[in-house]
Amino acid sequence: MDFNLNQEQKLLKDTVRTFVLKEIAPIADNIDKEDTFPEGLFKKMGEMGLLGCTIPTEYRGAGSDYLSSAIIEEELAKVSPSVALSYGAHAILCADNVYRNGTEEQRMKYLPRLCSGEWVGALGLTEPGAGSDAVGIEATAQRDGDEYVINGTKTFITNGPIADLVLLYAKTDKEKKAKGITAFLVETSFDGFSVSKKFEKMGNRGSPTGELVLDNCRVPKESLLGEENRGIAVMMSGLDSERAILSAWGVGIAQGAFDLALSYSRERVQFGQPICNFQLIQEKLANAYTQIESSRLMTYKAALLTQESERGGKGTELHKVAAAALLLAGETARNVALDAVQIHGGYGYINELPVERFLRDAVLVTIGAGTSEIRQIVIARELLGE
Fold first, then answer.
1. Secondary structure of 135-184 in HEC code, one letter for each residue
2. Residues 255-293: pLDDT tens digits?
3. Which residue is catalytic, options 73, 127, 211, 242?
4. Which of 23, 26, 82, 236 fits a 20 to 30 Å CA distance from 136?
């Protein structure tokens, strides 16, 4: 096995890192404090080909792969987890799903706008009464001639308040339960669509999260993604790639917090010597390094398996590995960020240093895209062959 990135991937990593240090690092703290997504940032990322990493060039994408997208996600998260979160929701949860499941007309209509950053994408699945139980959604869509009329509420939607396009799930046949779910591409300019609130969050501030209301929202039949009552296939096809890429979000958060802790441990002097000389500090650093490297390797494996699955290879192992990668990355991000704060001592607890921001951001990695507990259930069921 070759654990090294190829030259193209190394160049991408260096290019994104340079971009992040120049364009995002100077404003990362303000993004958090002001809880505002930087205007024009997505367009800059679109010009670099980052937003359409997995999208073919004929739709203005970069024509690359999932491992490259994971590299982008990690580099963003090392400095601004909130920007990385919005990137993942836009590029993978929305744009990548549109490419994999959309018609040629839908691809040509939406993908160039999403890849360029002209439009912002989001995924509308979670509801007030349906979180981990994703198939328990209550939003409905009824056919009315050449349109569908959608009613319902979506909550905790990343990019929701700023989105132009939402890949949204509703039930077209409630009696069929999971087999009655349908996916739609809903433009936020459609009549009956509104953003009812923007949430104030503990972490990942600057990645806007909102509640969406559909009140007799009329959607043309051409906006149906996939087939009617076959939305569960669209939903499940995206879960593995979502978990694989968001694993890199957790790895990036852990790496960012670790880099701060390592640097601080060398600079902070107590009892006449740098605290990195103390064995208990060394233990935290060693454990953090080991957890991060393990998480990165599993994340890369999940990304490669996702690519293999897209090419028609054996993807049955992907469900288990993607869930395991996100489980490990989430726990690693939280543990490493907590130890990074501990290494900073009192200075880690005040918001003058960015390390506390990484801890707040890390918590969401154990919740989003299926909680850690849900990921454990997925892994166990795969192991037991259910």
1. HHCCCEEEEECCEEEEEEEEEEEECHHHCCEEEEEEECCHHHHHHHEEEE
2. 999 999 999 999 999 999 999 999 999 999 999 999 999
3. 242
4. 82
Contacts (Cβ under 8 Å, ≥6 apart) of 278: none
Q: Which of these CATH numbers, 1.10.3720.10, 1.20.58.220, 2.60.40.10, 2.40.110.10, describes 123-228? A: 2.40.110.10
Where the chain has pLDDT below 70, the residues are: 1-2, 310-316, 386
Helix (H) or strand (E) holding 212: strand 209-220
CATH code of the region 232-383: 1.20.140.10
Please give the class, per CATH, of domain 7-120. mainly alpha
Concerning whether 242 is annotated as a catalytic residue, the answer is yes
Burial 294-312 (b: 16+ CB within 10 A, else e): ebbebbbbbbbbbbebbee
For the question of whether the overall pTM of this predicted structure is more than 0.85, the answer is yes
Looking at residue 136, its pLDDT comes to 85
Tokens 């939003």 found at: 139
pLDDT of residue 178: 85
Give me 97's structure tokens: 């799903």
